[in-house]
Please model this.
Amino acid sequence: MGEHDWLAEQVAAQRDYLRSVAYRMLGSASEADDAVQEAWLRLSRADPKNIDNLRGWLTTVVARVCMDMLRSRSSRREEPLGIHEPEAIGNGSDMIDPEQEALLADSVGLALLAVLETLTPAERVAFVLHDLFAVPFDEIAPVVGRSPAAARQLASRARRRMQGTKAAPDGDLTRRREVVDAFLAASRGGDFGALLAVLDPDVVLRADHAAVRMGASPEVRGAAAVAETFSGRARYAQPALVNGAVGAVWAPRGHPRVVFDFTITHGTIVEIVIRADPERLQQLELAILDGN
Model:
């Protein structure tokens, strides 16, 4: 087997893990694939004899590529959706298998991604690498261009932002579907009391920059204010699977224009994120669910 074929085989063996790392940083499957492909291109130009730990080397390269992508987003003024503070995931132990942590991260889905979007690029990279994939800080430091102590502080700062919610989001699709259906029915019917019944008292509604241009408020807090925002509205929104989680979509003539992500805990909605950026919508896996 030639050296090029051997390298390709090694990258293929690590691809799922590397995609998990990149996806947690970028929140986009297509961009994650681009980051992994770029890592392969850089490896093909490197001398394998100088690489002691191929998995670690690839992880570092993918993280640096993701860091550049996140900074590029910021320069294009793709601002975060706001600040959200759910419970941190992973305990940061270096004894945990990164692939097991990747599976745990996959079970969290959009709820975690919505939180990660509130972090700076350096915070996001440090937190994802350490808390989700158990990469030590001395390896994270050169990726974020800081000392190991400063990298630790970045992850700690990110973790503090994420320590407000005491319970993990509900994962049962049937239960989530019932809550979303109840929310949409109450919204269409203008039933203020029914809306309050499915909203957590401290619920937060956020909208991306495209949704704000369409008239949405950037952020609304509290059950009464969110209920008032939706009462009598969302008439054409339909329940849908959004990247495998139950959400809702407005899709006139079958073309998605607005997606609603819901974070649901103990049967009530604790966060709603409205997304209307066309590029982001194209990256989502959407499947409209049949009505009741």
